[in-house]
Amino acid sequence: MDILQLVVIGALGAMATMLTNKGIAVFNDGLRPILPEYFDDHAISRQELAATSFAVSFGLVIGFGIPVSIGASILLIHSVLLMTDIIGTWTPNTKLGLALAGVLGAAWGIGLTLGLQFIVDLFAMLPVNFLDALGAVGNPIVVAFSLFPGIAVAYQHGFNKGALTAGLSTFVLVLVRQFGTFTLPGGQAVTISAEGMTLLTGMAFMLYFAIKVKGESTDNQNLVNIFAERVKKIKKNMILLSLTGGLVAAATSLTLIAGDPISLSLMDGGQFGEAALAAFARGIGFIPLVFSTAIVTGVYSPAGATFVFVVGILLQGNPIFAFILGALVMLIEISLLSGAAKGLDRFPGVREMGEHIRSAMNRVLEVALLIGGALASEQIAPGIGFFWVIGVYLLNRTAKKPLVDMAVGPVAAIALGIIVNILFLLNLWAPAA
Taking the complete model, does pTM exceed 0.85, yes or no? Predict the structure, then answer.
């Protein structure tokens, strides 16, 4: 862990926390509509805002962001920016509170980065080292992510078109896996990414079907007109937001963070091209959500529509260029906020596609992480792992405060690894040969 990495992650934590403290940006989409009730309407107190932020974010930090990060040694951005949302709302809305927010946000970013490495090193010292097995949690994601366009098409346009998209994507996957490696005249071997080509095929069909949906509306145009002052507020803070977007891109280029579990697993496996494609598809899905909530609330996201992650992935090992280009991308996003929102009125299918992309990616992730957790658990405790994960998953459904489905697989695998070590110390468990 070099000083540059700590400076970048610390600066990101500080900036994101201060933006939340002043009501300029929050990462949690569910919290964004709440901020105007405090900053603009004064309908709730600072204490109520802080309590709401904690309620909607803390469980995702502990139950999702950190467990997914441990398996790959890369921080899932949720574990960083959801906590900066909490810190920013809990610190007072004063100059001293702003400074305190920056210090605590930087401390969280640096502490989490060092702490994750400490946890990884600690696992390696355990009598039964299950860290290698945890790597299996992300294995199904690598191929499963290329399936989500077919699922999104099915959600939006029905089973037949979804099955067609998924079927042709599968055909491309098999075809490229079989014939995707060849030798150039100079003797250099070239391998085409099967998952990348599969994803491109599915996305092409997804966009084609969405564009074919006819009709126009004035929904976004009306939103822009009604909330013109809140759009101006975002544009007034576009320099600060752009700097934060640049820091997100820089941290991604240093392989410190990833925007979602799909690209995280791909980055961890060195598949940066596929990770960039996955991040790009996710960005498309978040345009309608981020832009619409930003227009209505006057509050943006510190990661924007998440295209800054694509920049960071494509510029691996070049944090300075990633910072510059990431800031520029965020600047362009905010400049086009009104125009892009109005443009979506002309393509209702594309506007609606965003919600279906997010739903499809979440469902694919839930299944992939559950299967990955089961595979990892079976490696940790052969003959018991599948029983354990299925039991945890179903019992979680009955809990008063259940974990989100995406977190069950990783959390179950980590818990089983800890239990196995305790049993070993009690001479009640012997590792498989």
Answer: no
